[in-house]
């Protein structure tokens, strides 16, 4: 019993340090440093890099090579989510990973290497109780006792830690799926870190050339790497403060201008031509700025891209529900994507053909499919290469892509409906955070975003972070159905939100990869509204044209290239650069940033401190947006600055394994973090947040979240407050305050 308790204590300490990487269908930006946020930035970065790089820790090469050859295929087969067919061993699935491994080794006739027979012989010598489905823990305890004696906690801890983190990707995935079985894309499997560790110890014990020194530490190499990290971190901080200084000066100039405007009597704002709610995403910053320049009568806002609609969505042709809200929120409702009546026959035919194709792969028709399938794929490839526009129109029409098609609807699953009061609150929260209670335009557009890429396992990382990597279009469409409902408007009227009868809410979608915008149609639209929508389409078209030029210039892409071509190109490892420039987040009214060229670096969150009496709206926008922004920033930061520890390497040799992760080649550790092609133009900078609010509201909001407290107090992100009355700047994080105390002594409070 003592040995079991000791093992549990070791794993209790190691589990939180394992990397966080969701399965591919649910991949969205994760901060791999969440465990280290309780430490100061420099300390946490250095310690995590040493651990993830395994600096100075050497594991027997024979064990590593043979382990990858023998165990990785076994593990990938067990976790498989529909990428291979099963043999007669599938009944062992119900008993867990340890039993699966034992059955594979004992009964498989495919493996004939010497190493394989060593493992098989080792299993034959084990006691029967350790071979049972729940015998992994006893096997580990016996093995550690034989190897290190009954009492040697430090050596046991170091040994287990070395094995788990040598295969940190697989270890992290097993731990994640054990803790969150709902993340299995299709079929839940019984997995546990105990089973995985037992396999590691079994194989390492039998295959290592040296039983006593299979894991050794080179302290000199480790100390040298520590010194290199310290130098690198100081270099990053110097670049950060040079950038922060220029941004603070930009904001200071803008705030001085606002002070002068405040001295004059404010005029009643005329009714806007249209209002557009964009996602806070940094890729929308330039588009908003350009759109306002193309048509100054358009008013823009920034809000979280799930628009307060916390749902899980089952898309057409999919078998499972996927969350479409921030990862920190558990979706309360379920929605099924369906085709509208006029498009249902074609959509149904498409689904039936796809189902028939999948079924024939598992019967006698498979050889015929293998013979003729290349012809169809060749036609598809030729169309993509030479007739991209035609191919895209055909694809949208046949497959009914939810990001592109008007012919889709979203129906709530029975028992998962929003009440009228809940619908009104969702609409009110979004409008209130933007300070919009009246003076609505005739057309209000809820602009969702997503990204269409081809042959890209990182596609979810290009999507909307507030929608867990999905497109936010379904959320936008659901939100608009609420906002256009007369009953909901009456409830909002009681709360002081006066939406005119001639105001129409419309959902739209911006494809950040192909740089296209689609506005959903609304039947029965008034003539005035229809003319506004037509003009909006023209304004969007011109704004997108200029936005593409700005984006391509930013990343040194030839201006003659087509963004649509890049999104459809099978061989394009950089369809877009995602959040490569991210460095800022601004919470406040649009006047703070209107006209400022922030170079596509900023998340822009609309918030009006003038209407926020008790700080509730600040808490809403901070809690929903800042953790997402921090995750995205730190994901790019770590993958770009420390690729050996946190990056996944080049996309080119990657392969999808088991439908859950990525490997280099056919056998390797699971990859974590972002690919090199996604961060090769990223400048590693910690997030600098500007918040325009009352100080007591800000401090109260931060104190309610232990994670935000750690992020800010330990300076994983930097924070500055803008006073909403006199527009003065106040640094909240100590590092910013100390760095700029002299340079901005007369400007900072």
Explain what this protein looks like in three dimensions:
The chain has 749 residues and is an alpha/beta fold. Helices cover 47% and strands 12% of the residues. The chain contains 26 helices and 18 strands. Strands 4-3-9-10-11 form a five-stranded mixed β-sheet. Strands 13-12-16-17-18 form a five-stranded mixed β-sheet. Helix 5 crosses helix 9, helix 11 crosses helix 19 and helix 15 packs across helix 18. About 1% of the residues have low confidence.
The N- to C-terminal Cα distance equals 60 Å
Structural class: alpha/beta
Number of helices: 26
Helix content: 40-55%
* Widest β-sheet, arrangement of strands: 4-3-9-10-11
Portion of residues in beta strands equals 5-15%
Overall pLDDT, averaged? 84
Please compute the radius of gyration using only Cα atoms: 28 Å
Largest pleated sheet: 5 strands, mixed
Number-wise, the strands total: 18
Shape: globular
In the predicted model, the low-confidence regions spanning at least 5 consecutive residues are 400-405
């Amino acid at each position: 019993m003592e040995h079991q308790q000791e093992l549990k204590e070791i794993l209790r300490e190691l589990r939180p340090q394992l990397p966080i990487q969701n399965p591919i269908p649910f991949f969205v930006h994760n901060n791999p440093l969440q465990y280290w946020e309780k430490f100061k930035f420099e300390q946490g970065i250095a310690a995590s890099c040493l651990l993830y790089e395994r600096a100075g820790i050497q594991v027997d090469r024979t064990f590593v090579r043979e382990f990858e050859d023998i165990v990785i295929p076994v593990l990938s087969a067990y976790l498989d989510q529909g990428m291979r067919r099963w043999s007669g061993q599938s009944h062992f699935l119900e008993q867990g990973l340890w039993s699966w491994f034992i059955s594979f080794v004992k009964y498989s006739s495919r493996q004939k290497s010497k190493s394989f027979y060593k493992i098989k012989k080792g299993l034959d010598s084990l006691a029967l109780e350790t071979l049972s489905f729940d015998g992994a823990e006893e096997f580990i305890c016996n093995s550690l006792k034989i190897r290190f004696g009954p009492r040697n906690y430090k050596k046991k801890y170091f040994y287990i830690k070395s094995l788990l983190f040598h295969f940190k990707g697989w270890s992290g995935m097993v731990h994640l799926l054990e803790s969150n079985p709902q993340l299995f894309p299709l079929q839940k499997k019984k997995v546990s870190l105990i089973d995985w560790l037992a396999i590691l110890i079994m194989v390492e014990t039998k295959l290592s050339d040296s039983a006593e020194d299979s894991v050794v530490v080179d302290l000199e190499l480790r100390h040298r790497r520590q010194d290199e990290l310290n130098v690198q971190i100081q270099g990053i901080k110097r670049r950060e403060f040079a950038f922060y200084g220029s941004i603070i000066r930009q904001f200071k100039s803008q705030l001085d201008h606002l002070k002068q405007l405040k001295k004059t009597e404010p005029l009643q704002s005329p009714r806007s031509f249209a209002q557009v709610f964009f996602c806070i995403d940094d890729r929308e910053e330039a588009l908003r700025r350009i759109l306002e320049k193309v048509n100054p009568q358009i008013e823009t806002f920034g809000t979280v891209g799930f628009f307060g609609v916390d749902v899980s969505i089952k898309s057409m042709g999919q078998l499972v529900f996927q969350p479409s809200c921030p990862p920190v929120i558990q979706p309360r409702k379920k929605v099924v994507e369906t085709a509208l009546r006029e498009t249902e026959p074609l959509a149904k035919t498409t689904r039936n053909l796809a189902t028939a194709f999948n079924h024939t792969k598992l019967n006698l028709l498979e050889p015929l499919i293998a013979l003729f399938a290349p012809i169809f794929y060749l036609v598809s490839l030729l169309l993509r290469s030479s007739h991209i526009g035609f191919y895209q129109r055909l694809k949208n029409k046949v497959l009914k892509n939810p990001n592109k098609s008007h012919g889709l609807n979203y129906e709530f699953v029975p028992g998962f409906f929003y009440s009228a009061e809940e619908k009104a609150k969702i609409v009110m929260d979004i409008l209130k955070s933007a300070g919009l209670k009246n003076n609505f335009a005739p057309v209000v557009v809820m602009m969702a975003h997503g990204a269409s890429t081809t042959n890209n396992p990182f596609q979810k990382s290009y999507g909307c972070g507030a929608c867990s990597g999905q497109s936010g279009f379904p959320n936008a469409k659901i939100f608009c159905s609420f906002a256009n409902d007369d009953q909901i408007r009456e409830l909002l009227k009681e709360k002081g939100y006066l939406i005119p009868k001639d105001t129409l809410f419309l959902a739209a979608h911006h494809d950040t990869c192909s740089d296209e915008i689609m506005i959903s149609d609304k039947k029965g639209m008034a003539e005035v509204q229809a003319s506004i929508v037509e003009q909006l389409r023209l304004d969007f078209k011109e704004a997108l044209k200029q936005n593409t030029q700005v984006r391509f210039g930013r990343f040194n892409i030839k201006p003659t290239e087509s963004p649509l071509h890049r999104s459809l190109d099978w061989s394009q490892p950089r369809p877009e650069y995602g959040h490569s420039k991210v460095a800022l987040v601004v919470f406040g009214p649009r006047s703070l940033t209107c006209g400022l060229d922030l170079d596509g670096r900023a998340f822009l969150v609309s918030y009006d401190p003038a209407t926020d009496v008790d700080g509730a709206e600040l808490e809403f926008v901070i809690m929903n947006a800042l953790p997402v922004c921090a995750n995205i920033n730190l994901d790019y930061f770590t993958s770009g600055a420390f690729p050996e520890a946190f990056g996944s390497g080049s996309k080119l040799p990657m392969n999808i394994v088991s439908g859950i992760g990525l490997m280099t080649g056919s056998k390797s550790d699971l990859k974590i973090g972002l690919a090199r092609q996604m961060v090769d133009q990223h400048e590693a900078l910690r997030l600098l947040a500007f918040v325009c609010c009352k100080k007591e509201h800000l401090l109260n909001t931060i104190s309610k979240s232990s994670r935000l407290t750690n992020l800010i107090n330990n300076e994983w992100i930097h924070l500055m407050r803008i006073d909403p009355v006199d527009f003065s700047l106040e640094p909240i994080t100590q590092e910013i305050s100390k760095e700029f105390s002299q340079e901005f002594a007369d400007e900072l409070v």
